[in-house]
Design brief:
Layout: E1 2-7, H1 13-23, E2 28-30, H2 33-39, H3 50-65, E3 73-76, H4 79-88, H5 93-96, H6 99-106, E4 111-115, H7 119-124, H8 131-147, E5 158-161, H9 168-179
Parallel strand pairs: 1-3, 1-4, 2-3, 4-5
C-alpha cells in the first residue's frame, strides 16, 4: 500500500506518517520533498517562492513515480500540497502544472489522506509561521482535491481527516483495510 499524506503546515502530517509507519508492518516513510531537494543542493528562499513550490511539486512527483520506492511507502506530502501552496499565492492551477506528470504520480498512490485545519489542530498543535498562508493553502487544497481541475487524481481514493487527532491513524488503517 502506498499512502500519500497531504495538508497545510501544522496539521499533524508528519506525526500521522510516523504513527502509520509504526502500525503498518513493512512500511517505510519517504522523506519530505523539501529535505530531498535540500540534500540535492537546492537553496530555498524564505519564505518559499513560486519557483520553490514548483521545484517541490516536481520533486514530489518524481518521488511517487520512482521505482526505488518500496511498494509499502507512506509519503509525507504529495505534489498536491505544492500546487495548493501555489494556488494559495494566487496562481492558476492549469498554468502551474501539467496534468500528465501529476496523473502519473497519483497512479502510484493507493490512498490520498488529507489532514485539514480543525478547531482541535488549532488548540493542540504548535502555532505555525505564516498563518494566513496556512489557511489559504488549506482552502486551496480542499478545493483542488475535490474539484480536480487538472483531472490528475480521479482514480485515487481520498480520505479527509477532519475529526479528532487521536483517531486519525485508526481511520487511515480502516481505509487501508477496505482497499486491500
Amino acid at each position: 500500500m502506498r499512502i500519500g499524506v497531504s495538508g497545510t503546515h501544522g496539521t499533524g502530517k508528519t506525526t500521522l506518517v510516523e504513527a502509520l509507519r509504526a502500525r503498518l508492518p513493512g512500511h517505510v516513510a519517504a522523506d519530505e520533498p523539501y529535505y530531498l531537494l535540500e540534500e540535492e543542493g537546492y537553496e530555498f528562499q524564505f519564505p518559499p517562492s513560486p519557483a520553490d513550490y514548483r521545484a517541490l511539486m516536481a520533486r514530489s512527483a518524481r518521488s511517487l513515480c520512482s521505482p526505488p520506492s518500496p511498494s509499502a511507502t507512506i509519503f509525507d506530502r504529495t505534489p498536491l500540497d505544492y500546487l495548493a501552496y501555489l494556488v494559495a499565492n494566487g496562481a492558476d492551477p492549469s498554468e502551474e502544472a501539467d496534468h500528465t506528470p501529476l496523473r502519473a504520480a497519483f497512479t502510484h498512490l493507493d490512498l490520498l489522506v488529507i489532514t485539514v485545519i480543525t478547531p482541535e489542530t488549532e488548540r493542540l498543535l504548535p502555532g505555525t509561521e505564516w498563518p494566513g498562508l496556512r489557511a489559504r493553502m488549506n482552502d486551496a487544497l480542499l478545493e483542488l482535491v475535490y474539484a480536480d481541475p487538472l483531472d490528475a487524481w480521479p482514480d485515487t481514493p481520498v480520505l479527509e481527516l477532519n475529526g479528532p487527532l487521536a483517531g486519525r491513524a485508526d481511520l487511515v488503517l480502516g481505509a487501508v483495510a477496505q482497499l486491500s
